């Protein structure tokens, strides 16, 4: 099969001996259909994956056949693992890969291994283990720091504080129950982190701090957008997809670079030109004015007087700007730098995204990834996961109900601390301009705090026949009902 011919689209993985190429987009091709002639250049692009379905395959080194068979079937998570009896038949082998560490009831370091179930966890007293597993231990330290903050939190319930002991003081009952939902949460944390680690993104953690755990979220994890075939037709024909040279040939007004830029190469940066040619309000236009959000030298946005009802866009540099990958105007391209976690909150909110470390106002938090599809497809979907693309491709939305990343867990807040911003971004000008949406902090966010966005406009929060909002204690707003 030729490169990039339709098969499966998968999260980026590391193949020994092969260069590590970051996928910029996946393109879903209809079953039993050849690649369209107009997609030929996409098939030649090493950063584009094309296939009939998006799937999270189980990594090859984790496909271990064994008597233990998990009753849970989640994308990309192994269902077969080695039991303690099988492991005992092998001599101690440092080639086994550490998955996660805990502290047991005797204050000892306890390790679970990839491909082993919980009954085969080992106490590790060896200094060599610590030297060779710094990344695993570092992730566990970050997780435990958050859990200890729960123990000190006066607003945390006794049930939540007691639940932290599953990690901080692990007992034999949990270790001897490999079917416990706790281990499924741990597998989700580990295998989704593996997808992050390919591109030096921080680890992620899923938590449920309850006596009786609820089922963890079930979806396919991606760190790039997956585009339906009809949506890619829209993208390729959109004005925003044209190169800078193409746009300049048809643009009649005089261009100006009067706007300051934090680009490493300010004299050759093309971002301000793209703003004027594509998104700036035109004389006599009756459309809503778009706001141009530009990063400073630290990559942060000025969120002063930020209004969530405004249309807004961030434009990132490409190869035509002449800057490097560390340019302040390439935040979304570089990806998430702050560690985040997903925690089950309650029956009303379900799961929510929280910061595991402080985030400053104006900082990039995460990209909103999912399925790029037409807004009106006639096919039923959960539209509560839709993010509209009002400026870059108004006919399209990004939906993260079945395919997405951590950002799909951002809860509603009537006083949000984060915002979604459409992002015009591609590394190379020849790449398709797949619409992207970035999440930036509207205010400082403390470690442990929920990352919230507003799902509604202000006037929608005063509905007389709505239901009470529970985004924070004492909120008096009502949320609209959709029948």
TrEMBL record:
<keyword id="KW-0158">Chromosome</keyword>
<dbReference type="InterPro" id="IPR050973">
    <property type="entry name" value="H3K9_Histone-Lys_N-MTase"/>
</dbReference>
<dbReference type="Pfam" id="PF00856">
    <property type="entry name" value="SET"/>
</dbReference>
<dbReference type="GO" id="GO:0046872">
    <property type="term" value="F:metal ion binding"/>
</dbReference>
<dbReference type="GO" id="GO:0032259">
    <property type="term" value="P:methylation"/>
</dbReference>
<keyword id="KW-0949">S-adenosyl-L-methionine</keyword>
<keyword id="KW-0808">Transferase</keyword>
<dbReference type="GO" id="GO:0008168">
    <property type="term" value="F:methyltransferase activity"/>
</dbReference>
<protein>
    <recommendedName>
        <fullName>SET domain-containing protein</fullName>
    </recommendedName>
</protein>
<keyword id="KW-0479">Metal-binding</keyword>
<dbReference type="InterPro" id="IPR001214">
    <property type="entry name" value="SET_dom"/>
</dbReference>
<keyword id="KW-0489">Methyltransferase</keyword>
<feature type="domain" description="SET">
    <location>
        <begin position="324"/>
        <end position="456"/>
    </location>
</feature>
<keyword id="KW-0862">Zinc</keyword>
<dbReference type="InterPro" id="IPR046341">
    <property type="entry name" value="SET_dom_sf"/>
</dbReference>
<dbReference type="GO" id="GO:0005694">
    <property type="term" value="C:chromosome"/>
</dbReference>
